[in-house]
Amino acid sequence: MSYKLQFKRKALLGFNTNAKTVKGEKLGFYTGILYLAPSDISGHQVCPMAKAANCEKACLYTAGRGAFNSIQLARINKTKSFFNNKQSFLLNLIKDIEKGQRKAAKLGQELLIRLNGTSDIRWENEGFIDFDGKAYPNLMARFPLVQFYDYTKIPNRKDLPNNYDLTFSYSGASTFTKFNKLAIKNQFRIAAVFRFKADIPLTFKGMTVLPGDDSDVRHVEPQGHIVALYAKGKAVKDNSGFVLN
Q: Of 6, 69, 148, 230, which is most buried, counting CB atoms within 10 Å of its CB?
């Protein structure tokens, strides 16, 4: 049985649409990111740890182009499409990744795909049936030569595809302490958000700190380190504990 797209195709991935991914071009990477409406803004929860991490108000959803109402509405519509018509959504996403492959090849760069730009979905569990009727356990299996990466606040995501790299996302909220400790114990690469660039220390929680705003190319960095980011958008004024001083 073969499948066809059930709605007019619209681009789901944005390629090199923010300052960090543009910087990745200098390192030889062409990056596509899927931005959905975070937490339960769309009526569907895509960030299961958001309340424990207390990161809803500080979410990067409001940073950059995300500050515009039209962009936020588009992301809400994308999220609803993912839940209400998942098969067609994934086929549409395949088309975007294939487009990214062609562009990356033309540029002589390696394609990177980040599916959780503003969400925390377990993409390793999202199976589908391709256009030719072949079943795949996830998009990573469909594109074994493409490097996928994400940030996550879910500490028990295991048995990942070889081409799917995760960076744990730290929160200073007291309700998230046990999850931070588990990530540190397991020697994850951990991203931590500091209020200002000047606040970033040389070490944090006994781990060496690496700069994280130079690019969004995470998969080449070592595990067991802190990747330091600084707050953007409304996150600069966040006092929930998510943003560190």
A: 148
